[in-house]
Amino acid sequence: MSEPAGARRRWAGPALSVVIFAAALVALQRELHAFRYRDVTRGLHAIPTTQVATALALTALSYAILVGYDALALRYVRHRIAAWRVAFGSFVSYAVSHTLGFPVLTGGAVRVRFWSAWGLSTGEIGQAVSFAGATFTLGMVLMGGLVLVLEPSSKMALVHLSAAVRPLGAVALLLVAAYVGWSVRSAARRRARGTIDRRSTPPSVPALVASPTAGAGLTPELALETAAADAAAADTADAATADAATAAGEAAGAASAPSAPAAVATPAVSASAVSVSAVSVGGWRFPVPSPTLAVAQLVLAAADWTVAGSVLYALLPHQAAAVPFLTFLGAFLLAQFAGVVSHVPGGIGVFEWVIVRLLRPYAPNAAAVLGALVAYRAVYYLLPFVAALGALALHETRHVQARVAGGVVQGARVVGRVAPRIVPLALSFATFAAGTVLLVSGATPSVHARVAALHSALPLGVIELSHFAASLAGAALVVLAWALGRRLDAAWGLAIVALVVGIIGSLLKGLDWEEGLLLTGVLSLLIPARPAFYRRAALTNEPFTPGWTLAVLLVVGVTTWLGYFSYHHVEYSSDLWWRFTARGDAPRFLRASVGVLGALLVFALLRLLRHAPADPEPPTDADLARARCVLERAVATEGNLALLGDKSLLFSDSGRTFVAYGVAGRSWVALGDPVGPPEEHTEVAWRFKEAADEHGGWTVFYQVSVDHLPLYIDLGLTLLKLGEEARVPLDRFSLDGGARKGMRRIVNAVEKQGVRFEVRDASAVPALLPELRRISDEWLATKSVREKGFSLGYFDERYLQQFPIALVLRRDGDGEHPVAFANLWRGADRSELSVDLMRYASDAPESVMEYLFVQLLLWGKSQGYAEFNLGMAPLSGFESRSLAPLWSRAGALLYRHGEHFYNFQGLRRYKEKFDPIWEPKYLASPGGLVLPRVLANVTTLISGGLRGVIAR
Fold it and tell me: Where, by residue number, does the polypeptide cross the bilayer (predicted)?
């Protein structure tokens, strides 16, 4: 899909939601044209406390039933999770999805976050989420069918439903019966075959084919072929194997390059199919539930819809309470269906209009019904949502603390790691809520007694100006909330100013001390959180997502509608704009609305007029020269791969730090950590994420170190361990002692064949290039492999001329000529030494690679280098405990028993001979359902395109 088409698709959904939302507000206004704002507030305040208490109890029961949805779904995939975890994950996911809408993106994302951490594969999560969604749909179909069949025609007519729709109820019930019958038949067929219904896995299982290697098994390329189903819907087990394949490729070249993966993940398209026992869609296979599960689905779903409807029924005014519950339930189901189909977050506006419209015969006082709907929103949506956010923040804090205790970072730095991740998001929500309160307050009538008291002490102009300023502050806060979530320092300062203006404006426009108290609370939380907002970037340059745009438009739309509804009885005239009186709420609303809309329009224009985001481009000679200057001061050596010129470069504003990256599919893959001064790493990492966001891409950092994990967590990325990197302290390396007897024997045996080791400066490389080319071509032909790229060095004359070269020279009748070589990477201040391209000729002595390594370590020690980087041992260091994540357990299993694919343990044992220190390496990516596609894209980059994926 092209980028413009992708952008249009991302914005199409929110745009349609805005149109539907606007239409619903217009329709709702027509239903309420005979009522005033005070009629709604009067109806809200008239709800008895006992009714509110009943609604709260029913809400708790409803969410408890929803826990059953997830419990059934987990039973369906035959995965056991502790009951408290099921309840916690279910409550948070449903509270979030009910309020924000888009359940697949909101509640589904929460489930992925929890369930993946609790051991479910992506395939199991997909099956379980689909099962829960099917339960929800079955409940709506079942209850809708029952209502249409059982409800008398006279009652249906009162809620504007014709008796002609009754056959639809029969059809709905037949569909439900067919579902149960399908389940029974499937179970009977399984019993007849004597089979056991097992948890499904996607139909593709990758086949790993390890290429045989010569010498010490330290060649940089390993061809791995997989037959993967659609990568967007692959099981995490597939993803784990694909990543293991990537890691295996690294294992093959770990000695010749610290980062040398080569994996293959070829997505295949699976056709949709339906059988007696399962449904297959796009590479997913969904077994038909057992009859017990199917019946349990129907019982739970029926109870859920009944109790959820009872919450609103309990809050209805006494006039509407006369409506029979079955009739009301039909209206409730229809309203919920309309809200879901509209894709408006929470169905706001759409749900209200349908309820008011359908209940009008029983409750002609539509304002009182709307008051009950406001209470319903607060009880069933807002309170659980706030509770879920608090519970989620507490859980995330404890989760990070647990990881800290596990050794990711030191315990003394817990707060410093947790706060940057939790605080900005929490304050973003709080700021958005504060802005919404100010906008709603500016659109609704003030308390006249307070205004009169204020007017007796202050000039009218102060009151008018305060009202206008408070509304503008509200508009600023709903926009700044988005920027606070992105940790912008400018947003922090502007939000402080907007909150102060809002507090003063609330008090001076009508003594609204409640609003002032709320804003003061947000301000008191925001001020000490200054360190969490560290990014220096222009507000107009940050990517404004469709979701945030929709949220802002919905808030502005609701407040504008509220103002119009509150003052629609006021006769409009041109002089209304210039009317200034103490009780002139309508003129103040008009002026504030124009101010708010004007401010938002200016902001939108500034964003539209900004420079379009630059597309990734190959580095220029000037870019490579700048990168070379940065690398001369860099401690780590992996960044030298940027000098290949096959990766785009993103520099910090100072030019002292860069990220080298490639783009494949939607994945923007940065190689390693940012290169440059540590104080600039955060800035350039965020700029890289913004660039990916601007193009609708996924931010990925490949092979990152432990020291930078808090940064990637702060970016909202998920960490996946790839393996462990071996670093040899050179000050303690020598060939002395019994443990080094084997190394001494290899060195002596090789040198007896007229071979010696030598390191030559980069200036000597041009004269050696013909010989080096011959060795490289021989090596490629012998191994039947092709050049790779991205995280693997390849033979490029311009690239090789930038580094010293280590040679293994053999004497013969024509003098000395090289039989093996490796280009050297040197860290600043002699901190690290490593190699990249490492190849040998067909006539090289046996064990020449080990000889070369030993000599390199001895040479590095003699030159005063601190460490030698031997590269990574893929899949090593993984935990196989029952509670470990699936990827960790799969990696540990493949590490122990995967010698049929590649000798992972043998590679680690080989490197252990040098007594290294092991440090973990990670993949930082969005994770979840996109992980298989990310891994496939990384594979494409490393393999040099699709041709490299399917060929060695």
Answer: 12-32, 52-74, 86-105, 125-150, 157-182, 294-316, 323-346, 366-394, 422-445, 465-484, 491-511, 546-569, 589-609
Q: Which tokens in the block code for residue 722?
A: 């790839």
Would you state the pLDDT for residue 151?
72
817 three-state secondary structure: strand
- d(CA 598, CA 603) in angstroms, rounded, equals 9
Query: β-strands 278-281, 273-274: how paired?
Result: antiparallel
Q: Which residues, 6+ apart, have CB-to-CB distance to 620 below 8 Å? A: none
Q: What type of residue is 588?
A: R
Residue with tokens 């019993």: 191
- Tell me if 147 sits within 8 A of 159, measured CB to CB: no
For the chain, the average pLDDT equals: 76
Strand pairing class (278-281; 266-267): unpaired
- Distance of alpha carbon 739 from alpha carbon 742, whole angstroms: 8
Query: In this structure, are residues 483 and 491 in contact, taking their beta carbons and an 8 Å threshold?
Result: yes
Q: Comparing C-alpha atoms, which of 627, 710, 629 is closest to residue 671?
A: 627
| The pLDDT of residue 8 | 57
Q: Is the pLDDT of residue 828 over 60?
A: yes
Signed CA dihedral, 152, 158, 164, 166: sign only: negative
- Is residue 756 within 8 Å of residue 820, measured between CB atoms? no
One DSSP character per residue, 545-591 reads -HHHHHHHHHHHHHHHHHHHHHHTTSPP-GGGGG---TT-HHHHHHH
Nearest to 227, CA basis, from 253, 208, 211: 208
**Once rounded to an integer, what is the mean pLDDT over residues 115-143?**
82
Q: List residues bridging with 660 in a β-sheet.
A: 649
* 3-class DSSP state of 49: helix
**Cβ proximity of 612 and 755 under 8 Å:** no
Residue 878: both structure tokens together: 């993984």
Q: Two tokens at 951?
A: 């060929």
pLDDT of residue 392: 72
Read off the pTM: 0.59
User: Is a pLDDT exceeding 60 seen at residue 731?
Assistant: yes
The answer to whether 723 and 921 have CB atoms below 8 angstroms apart is: yes
Give dist(CA 662, CA 684) in Å, integer.
15
Q: Which of 70-74, 369-373, 483-487 has the lowest mean pLDDT?
A: 483-487
- CA–CA separation, 353 vs 644, rounded Å? 62
**How far, in Å, CA of 947 to CA of 288, rounded?**
39
End-to-end CA distance of the chain: 28
Specify the range with the lowest mean pLDDT, choosing from 282-286, 313-317, 718-722: 282-286
DSSP letters along 378-443, please? IIIIIHHHHHHHHHHHHHHHHHHHHHHHTTSS-GGGHHHHHHHHHHHHHHHHHHHHHHHHHHHHHH
Q: Give the span between the Cα atoms of 946 and 952, in whole angstroms.
A: 11
SS3 459: coil
Return the residue matching tokens 């015969």: 361
Residue 935: count other Cβ atoms within 10 Å of its Cβ: 29
CB 949 within 8 Å of CB 266: yes
Q: Find, among 255, 240, 236, 230, the residue nearest to 208 by Cα.
A: 240
Q: Is residue 230 helix, strand or coil?
A: coil
Could you count the other beta carbons within 10 Å of the beta carbon of residue 448?
Answer: 13
Q: Token pair 């490629």 is at which residue?
A: 780
Buried b (16+ CB within 10 A) or exposed e, 281-293: eebbbbbbbbbeb
732-761 confidence digits (pLDDT tens)? 898 888 888 888 999 999 999 889 999 999
CB atoms inside a 10 Å sphere around CB 783: 20
Amino acid at 869: N
Hey, what are 123's tokens?
């395939």
Site of tokens 């080094």? 740
DSSP code for 658: E
pLDDT at position 539 is: 64
> What is the C-alpha to C-alpha distance for residues 163 and 153, in angstroms, rounded to an integer?
6
